[in-house]
Amino acid sequence: MNKKVVLSNKYFLAKGGERDCYIHPNDKNKVIKVVHRNEKHNEQNKLEYKYYKYLKKSDKPQTHLTECFGFINTNLGLGLVYERLRDYNNKPSKSFKNYLEEKFFTKEEEENLVYELKEYLFKNDILFIDVDLSNVFCQEIFQNVYKLIIIDGLGARRLNWRFYVYLYSKIYTRYKISKQWKKFYNNYLKYSTYL
Q: Has residue 124 got a pLDDT over 60?
């Protein structure tokens, strides 16, 4: 690892339950997630890195996930570097929740986006565990063409035996995907203006 990247409030983007997210000071197209809790935590960076490595090794398409670039040394500790989602016009992408609150899409457009994400998760056995709507961004890939991208909450909640069961037991994995999808869909329904 090279010399430390210095993070400060100037680059701060968001705070999660376990990690803070910063714009990479040397590359505005990347973000760095750093654990902010000193007490016991769920090792989210380690867990997600292992899960991304597993997906790559298994040749799973990552069309609906942000890219993960690996670890970097920062003044706040070890950080995990991800792609910072940007729209085709180079503006930062926004969360799906923001779009729903703005009543941006028609009912059909909303349903198509949600259905496409569901197809991707189920077809490729992708474990999307933390199904909060703020963990899904809506990227404009061409003018007026959108896609949902998961930016956080993959793999498992904790780096324990369950995580490995998820990876190697198709039956358990599919059960978990189905269970979490129902939660995600219910979250979506709370914000959809068409119900």
A: yes
